[in-house]
Amino acid sequence: MRKFWMAGALGVAVVSGSIAQAQIGERLRERRAQRMEQKAGQGRIPGAQTVAYGKDPLQVMDIWLPKTRTGKAPLVLYVHGGGWKRGSKDSATGRAKPVHYPEQGYAFASINYRLVPAATVEQQAADVASALAAVLAKADAFGIDRTKVVLMGHSAGAHLVALVGTDERYLRGAGLSFADVDGVIPNDGAAYDVPAQMQDGGRFMQDTYVQAFGTDPVRQRALSPTLQAATPNAPRFLLLHVQRADGVKQAEGLAAALRKAGTGVEVASFPGSGLKGHAEINRKLGEPDYPATPVVDKWLKAAFGG
What we know:
The chain has helices at 2-41, 97-103, 121-137, 139-142, 156-166, 169-173, 194-200, 206-213, 217-222, 245-260, 274-283, 292-303, and strands spanning 49-52, 60-64, 73-79, 107-111, 144-154, 183-187, 236-241, 264-269. The protein is of the alpha/beta class.
């Protein structure tokens, strides 16, 4: 009996130690990610107009407009990452995008949204749709072409724009539809298939995923763009990723589901691994010499009809 008790106690200790190690690892990962976000966000790009799209203090966005353009400007609306629970338009947009896309003749909007745990992922997706609706309601005042719209997001923001692009209820809740979106660019996202992500993503991120998506399989599936990708969807997708095993697998799974539904999709792979590569593709996108920049530029030009 004593041997069984000792073995059981040892097993509990090992499990407890593994959980504690995972929690410490996730906290270290969080701090590193926050430092990377802060570094990328140093020196906020001037020239933005800040617009509220709801009553919550986080329901705001910055909009940069092209300085010179003939006619109305297409819109790129960007959603920051941060594990669904942190980040902001000021720290997680990067310095290049607010300069580069207006130089291409596009309006560029970067939104804040309510964060977990004060808000749910469902409410975050609704915030993305509401922010878009608010911009389009003022399209004439901003000189924006409301018929040319692309959603772009990184990391958790990539998941949110993919969800809005595959589950029309969020757009409908804001008085819009897939007809109001020309395309979606999820950038190095995860959790396109939530149950698979929670199984494959490693123990260091489990607390983050459980906090965001809970443990109810029905809810997890409803929040999975890959599992919501049966037609209809937004017209076209460009999935960007670096060389993270779970990110690659998630992007390929979403691409396969979109193709099965007859939705146009391209997948573009770039160098970079781990958290460093994950942060770099967000921070450097828009820099002329970064490999993803011309790929996205070409795709946007096609999405906006030349």
